[in-house]
Specification:
Order of helices and strands: HHEEEHHEEEEEEEEEHEEEHEEHEEEE
Distance between the termini: 106 Å
Radius of gyration: 37 Å
Strand order of the largest sheet: 4-5-6-17-16-18-14-15
Strand content: 15-25%
Largest sheet: 8 strands, antiparallel
Helix content: 10-25%
Oligomer: single chain
């Protein structure tokens, strides 16, 4: 292309043609520069990283192929939903169906009776004693067990004195049972008989008490003891716990890891919170500070749910635990994990026993969540602090057991 402008053109026309030529030349230069630029040619300038698709181009021209990133899902709301204020997050479902806690109103348990708590605790008449309560009405006698480990704090004479409730104390116990009122064992701990079932209810947020898993310090797992082994001057409540042989996961309050049973239910404390669940992995058990083995679980999400096939019990045992009306000992936790119910009954099936626990919780506006069995039958034991005495409640011979759940003054 020539840039020559003929001389015979008018002066204005020459000026216009000259401007046009300069514009064309400028466009040619720009297009040529773009064609030779590093960005257009794909040649990396030293020190510059260019990303194209799944390739990462590095200094020096080497190429690393990476998987294309998966786009993050965009949170969308249903057509009818509107956003106001801070959005509420939906908890991720877990394998153990951890419930959303429903806060329980702060209760003065000592103000409760069978009708309710506080202003709802209407005056109630005394009830007729039911023989199915198995209530002790005579001073107990300790079992003679020469092979059992001996109490480390109290002599035999001191133990006999601790449990030898006098006639007035036994009469007081009978009156408590018939009154339908709570008996305050200590602040935040009460005993009540509700519809002929024994309950100890513990406010887990109340200070001044500790829960202990007392197991003899012997090399053999499942060494038999009597509940007398667990008694001390600090005892407020003592009940039997795991089955003979220690069939579940047990850890004492000192951190002694006695036995871990993969896949067996337990009552345990982890990160300052008590819970009932099936422990399936060792890494879930390691952070636990204290635990009592037991099972099967029979209450889940606040209802009777007896589906324990994965808890390592034989089918005949499961049938017995479900159907027997013999004495049984159980523990339950509220949905907000503020309250622990320790319950003993006689003459009820497991389903009826469950209904009794749930009904008492509703009377007190406590939503129960989970419950599991401890040992039962002739191993059932419950003792309460009544004044100077620790009184065994049930009119049964002091049993042979392997460990205790003990509530003690924290001194």
């Amino acid at each position: 292309m020539s840039s020559h402008i003929p001389d015979n053109q008018p002066p204005n026309r020459k000026r216009v043609n000259l401007i046009g030529v300069l514009i064309v030349l400028g466009l040619i230069v720009v297009v040529g520069w773009l064609a030779l630029s590093p960005a257009a040619s794909g040649v990396a300038t030293p020190g510059v990283v260019a990303v194209t698709g799944a390739e990462t181009r590095e200094a020096g021209g080497s190429v690393t192929v990476e998987p294309s990133p998966t786009p993050k899902p965009t949170s969308t709301l249903p057509p009818t939903a509107t956003t106001t204020g801070t959005p509420t997050s939906t908890p991720t479902p877990t394998q153990t169906r951890t419930p959303t806690a429903t806060p329980t109103p702060t209760l003065d348990l000592a103000s409760c009776n069978a009708a309710g708590c506080g202003s709802a605790a209407a005056p109630l008449p005394t009830v007729v004693y039911d023989p199915d309560l198995l209530l002790r009405q005579t001073p107990p006698a300790r079992r003679v067990c020469r092979e059992c480990p001996q109490n480390e704090q109290l002599s035999s004479r001191e133990l006999n004195a601790l449990i030898a409730a006098d006639a007035d104390t036994l009469a007081q116990l009978l009156e408590i049972v018939r009154s339908q009122e709570t008996y305050e064992i200590a602040p935040g701990i009460v005993y009540i008989v509700y519809d002929d079932v024994h309950h100890v209810v513990i406010d887990l947020e109340e200070s001044g008490t500790i829960l202990r898993n007392i197991i003899p310090n012997t090399p053999e797992r499942g060494t038999l003891i009597t509940p007398s082994y667990c008694l001390s001057p600090r005892s407020l409540v003592v009940v039997n716990a795991d089955y003979h042989g220690l069939n579940g996961s047990n850890r004492t309050e000192t951190g002694r890891d006695l036995f871990f049973h993969l896949g067996r239910a337990a009552l345990f404390e982890r990160a300052g919170r008590f819970d009932i669940d099936v422990i399936r992995e060792r890494e879930d058990y390691d952070p636990i500070t204290i635990s009592w083995g037991g099972g099967p679980i029979f209450m889940w999400d606040g209802r009777y749910d007896y589906d324990p096939e994965q808890e390592w019990f034989e089918s005949e045992s499961l049938d017995y635990y479900r159907d027997t009306r013999w004495a049984k000992m159980t523990v339950a936790v509220s949905k907000d994990r503020k309250y622990l119910f320790i319950t003993s009954s006689y003459g009820l099936s497991l389903r009826q026993h469950t209904r009794n626990i749930i009904d008492l919780g509703r009377q007190w506006d406590i939503e129960l969540d989970r419950a599991m069995r401890f040992d039962g039958g002739e191993s059932t034991y419950m003792a309460l602090r009544l004044g100077d005495y620790l009184v065994p409640i049930l009119n049964l011979e002091e049993p042979l057991i392997v460990n205790c759940l003990a509530v003690e003054r924290d001194e």
